[in-house]
Amino acid sequence: MQNNCTRTHIDELCQPFKYAWIKSFDIRQRAMMFDDDSDRELFITQSSHVNTFNESDINTDFEDGLMDRKGKFEVSIDTSDEEFLKITQEVEQEILIESATRPVDTSLSSDEELLKSTQVNESVLHTDDAGDASRFGKELSDKELNDLQESSKNKNTEKKMDWATRLFSSWYTERNKSNDGLDVLLSLSDDGLNTCLIRFITEVRNKSGNEYHGNTLHEILMCIQRYLRDNDKNINFQSDFEFRRLRQTLDAKMKSLAREGVGIHARKADVITEEQEEFMWQENILGEDTPQKLLDTVFYLNGICFCLRGGEEHHSLTTSSFSIIMKGQVKHLKYLEGVTKTNNGGLSHKSLNMKTVVAGSNLDNPARCPVRLHDKYMSLR
């Protein structure tokens, strides 16, 4: 059953007008609550919020104007949010235009009040002049759209993909005395591609003629898969039934290489021990007595204190990455991660939070305090 707008509804309609319509859905929710006591608890938050308004908060001009238009604008329980917002905006606009077109009251008590009244009238009359143009940016060309899409790709990933596809193209050219390796990747059927890649990963070698590591072979296949997907071929070497023989061959090849000791020891940087760090402080390798030494020390402490990921995260640091916070009477340095390869803000990372790390002051040894040295470096920039 639809009920016409009551005085209670009018009171509630006036409140969103003054408070930017943020509670436009409260009216229908409260109406449903009054019709069914079982819903009363569900909407207690909205009901309590509405009831916190004082009588003086209501825009009486809008209230009276809406009452005058009761026959023209009707609100019911079934009124959608879009219809409700449209009705309230139309009422608001009519009332403002009526107010703006009234003759200026020359009996106002001061020049300031007269000027203010005139300015309000002029602003209302020109409300619709700009239209929606200010809501949209300039129209992008096809090149600008393409550049935007390309900017989402990681440059290092693109380089690896280019290397892997050129490697396949070189192998195909050598085996078939043909120069259409990349074209073959895109034209082969799934069965043909499966057969071709099986031979490729078992025969390919590096420039020295040695076997690639097992993980490198897997990475080569993933780069080729990415190339095919970028060219509108929807395949998955790791799960598609058509490529089960390719997976079996790769698995067997990786196990064979591991038994031979190829690639079982990953290359990685050695960990700096506490003794080595103490040696650097004692030998004045770390310090603050020269600009370069201060820079090196801050660089080192940033990596130690904030768990920075390789050179990329160091390179992307900005002054806004750091802030000073107080915990009790002790000063701390807070680091907020920016955009990185593992958290670039795109669709695949939209649910990830940026890394935040806090480093405290070294009260026992101020000469090695990361907070103090950071402050000094920033003051000398």
Silhouette: flat
| Gyration radius, rounded | 35 Å
* Low-confidence regions: 1-11, 13-58
Question: What fraction strand?
Answer: under 5%
Total number of beta strands: 3
Number of helices: 16
Helix content range of the residues, please? 40-55%
Topology:
Blueprint (H helix, E strand, L loop, with lengths): L6 H12 L7 H10 L8 H8 L8 H9 L12 H21 L9 H15 L16 H9 L4 H22 L4 H7 L2 H14 L10 H17 L13 H16 L14 H9 L8 H16 L3 H6 L6 E6 L2 E7 L19 E5 L9 H10 L2
Helix pairs in contact: 1-4, 5-6, 8-11, 10-12, 11-12, 14-16
Could you walk me through the main structural features you see in this protein, from its secondary elements to its overall organization?
This protein is mainly α and 381 residues long. It has three domains: 7-125, no CATH class; 155-259, no CATH class; 274-379, no CATH class. 53% of the residues lie in helices and 5% in strands. It has helices spanning 7-18, 26-35, 44-51, 60-68, 81-101, 111-125, 142-150, 155-176, 181-187, 190-203, 214-230, 244-259, 274-282, 291-306, 310-315, 370-379; strands spanning 322-327, 330-336, 356-360. The model is unreliable at 1-11 and 13-58 (pLDDT under 50).
